[in-house]
Design goal:
Elements (H helix, E strand, L loop, with lengths): L1 E10 L4 E10 L4 E6 L7 H6 L2 H6 L17 E5 L4 E5 L8 E2 L1 H13 L5 E4 L3 H8 L17 E2 H7 L17 H16 L7
Parallel strand pairs: 1-7, 3-6, 7-8
Antiparallel strand pairs: 1-2, 2-3, 4-5
């Protein structure tokens, strides 16, 4: 059974730090988790200085909506020479959890999927972020695949470009919305003439 997933992460060319993960199984089960460690420094400061993450990923996270101080919620401050972002996770959200709980939830979700195949869109970094939940790749639990099949590679094999793919209606860069869209892409590819499911 196919399991579609997406990870949002901070990467700097040397490290990949998980922000959130969304998973959708063919049988309709879903998992969404946000790494509570992104609320602590130095990871929090690194994300706050990353314009693209602050504009595209952070707004989709469960955020504190209180406005009792300068560091509540989410915002951007820009001038011609400076950039500063800020956000606070809603630590009461059931989606926000420590890495240990994310690791266990992801493991259990994958192992509950018979004959599991992992699928992602441009999935190389997603697989690294997933595998690093357990440390080294050789530390993956038995039953967790050591590779992710790539929907973008499958589209290329079929002679399709990014422009040929269905457009995501909403939630782009929300890990769960992206995982749902990956499932929709797979259905689109399977429905092409001459393609078997």
């Amino acid at each position: 059974m196919r399991l579609y997933y997406d990870c949002e992460f901070l990467e700097d060319g040397r490290t990949i730090d998980l922000i959130s993960i969304g998973m959708v199984a063919e049988d309709g089960r879903e998992l969404y988790a946000v790494n509570e460690d992104i609320e602590t420094d130095p990871l929090h400061s690194r994300i706050c200085r990353h314009r693209w993450l602050m504009e595209n990923v952070v707004p989709h996270l469960p955020l504190s909506t209180g406005r009792t101080g300068a560091q509540k919620g989410h915002g951007l401050i820009t001038t011609s020479s400076t950039y500063l972002g800020f956000f606070n996770l809603d630590m009461t959200s059931n989606d926000v959890m420590p890495p240990r709980m994310i690791r266990n939830a992801v493991r259990d979700f994958i192992l509950a999927t018979p004959d599991v195949e992992l699928w992602a869109w441009y999935g190389a970094y997603d697989h690294v972020a997933l595998a690093q939940l357990w440390g080294r790749m050789i530390d993956l639990p038995a039953g967790v695949p050591m590779w992710t099949n790539d929907l973008r590679q499958e589209a290329a094999r079929l002679g399709l470009t990014d422009g040929d793919m269905p457009t995501q209606a909403e939630g782009e860069h929300n890990a769960l919305a992206d995982a749902r869209h990956n499932k929709a892409i797979a259905a689109y590819l399977a429905d092409l003439p001459g393609e078997a499911q």
